[in-house]
Amino acid sequence: MKQLKTLLRNMFLRNTIPKIICLILALLSWFFVMENQNPRKTRTFDNLPVTIFGREIAESRGLIVESISGDFVDVTIDGNWTSVMNFTEQDIFLSANIDATGKGQVTVPINVRLANATVTVKELSQNYLKVQFDAVETQMKEVEVTTTGDLPDGYELGSLQPRQETIAVEGPSNLLKTIAVLSGTVDISSRTLSEVEFVDIAPLDSQGNPVDNEMIVLASPFVEVDLSIMGTKEVPVHILPSGHVAENYRLGSITSVPETIRLYGDTKKLSSIREISTPVQLDERSAPFTTNATFELPEGIRRVGQDPVIIQVDVQQLITQQFSFKTADIEIRGKDDALDYQLGTQEPLNLVMVTDTRAIVNTIKAENLKFYIDAEKTAGNYLLDIKVDGLPETSSISFRVPQLDVIIKEKATP
Predict the structure, then answer these.
(1) What share of the chain is helix, strand, coil (3-state, %, to 5)?
(2) End-to-end CA distance of the chain
């Protein structure tokens, strides 16, 4: 072993310079021979890209390229040694003109162009591309709207109804197949009033995952949603009497027990209700009576509770009492100091008939009644209406002699 190492050392370390000169001369001789003889050579360029043409034409036909396989190719060239060795990847042009009339897979030949005519293509790793086309279609997809958050206490979610149940979606047919629903969300936190919401929607697959929306177009990015919130409201009972009580009777107070009722329904409808009415038929009644209220509620509104509402109607009998008064005691109000006022020939006594309920008539005192006429401001003979103070507003009156003769003259100048 030691002798072998010594032999190798002597071979490489002795006469070094002559050996180097011989190596250089050998290389120069090789290059000289290759340049002059220029033998043929092959060379392979790996993984060169294929330029794709014709996408615009396919798109004009309503098609899109879904996938391309084989668009990177190994190219083996053949030619003389000098040309092949000087060749680069930029001297090789690969292209394919894709074309289709419908969706599906097509096979497209790969075209090769070389920058140097002395070099030829010996082999391609593949001669064709496989192009998968898909058609651009429009499909109707169902709209689904859900809620997040919680309503305040005392309110309930009535309904959440999109006005557009489906929306047109345009895109690749295979991608459209993955869309299960167009989904939107409404935050109902702190909501107390029903209203129309504009809700953004997005495509989801059957697992609830978003679908790539860069390749699809929605006919509308949002939908109008009727958000119905249910609640209660207390409103007063308004009584509507119809007809008349019996002759010589008067309708007194009308009350309901209770005075209010609580309603349940859509809060927007409830906000417009100020009171709720019930009719009451008087039917020539001559005595107080009670009846159950009946309500015609707006559609979708109902009462809370089933206890009856009682309407209490007071019907009062009327009586007439007459009071006498002296004609001379009638006061003339609003006289002009420049005029003289004289009463014409009158009966000394007159009567006033007062009609009201017994309870009211019994409170009227003759001494509290004040009779008067309103004076005219110009001279002449007048027949003026007799009036009275001291009667309740509810009372109706009539006079035996309702008017008084009054003679008005200018006062004599002293």
Answers:
(1) 15, 50, 30
(2) 179
**Average pLDDT, stretch 96-115?**
87
Q: CA 141, CA 166: separation in Å to the nearest integer?
A: 5
User: Are 188 and 157 contacting, i.e. CB atoms less than 8 angstroms apart?
Assistant: yes
CA gyration radius, the chain: 56
Distance CA 70, CA 266 (A): 63
From residue 261, alpha-carbon distances to 43, 237, 289 in Å are 97, 7, 21
Instruction: Check residue 215 and give its pLDDT.
Output: 84
Return d(Cα 123, Cα 125) in angstroms, integer. 7
Is the pTM of the predicted complex or chain greater than 0.70? no
Res 14 pLDDT > 70: no
Residue 123: DSSP 8-state: E
pLDDT tens digits, 115-163: 888 898 989 999 999 988 888 889 999 999 999 999 999 999 999 999 9
Rounded Cα distance, 250 and 358, in Å: 11
pLDDT category, 241, cuts 50, 70, 90?
very high
Three-point CA angle 334, 340, 341, nearest 5°: 60
Kindly write down the DSSP assignment for every residue of 274-315, as one continuous string.
Answer: --EEEEEE-TT--S-EEEE----PPTT-EESS-PPPEEEEEE
What is the Cβ-side half-sphere exposure of residue 349, based on CA atoms within 13 angstroms?
4
Going by pLDDT thresholds of 50, 70 and 90, the confidence category of residue 289 is very high
Q: Which residues contact 272 (CB under 8 A, 6 or more apart)?
A: none
Neighbours of 376 (CB within 10 A): 18
pLDDT score of 105: 87
**Buried/exposed 19-33: b ≥16 CB within 10 Å, e otherwise:** eeeeeeeeeeeeeee
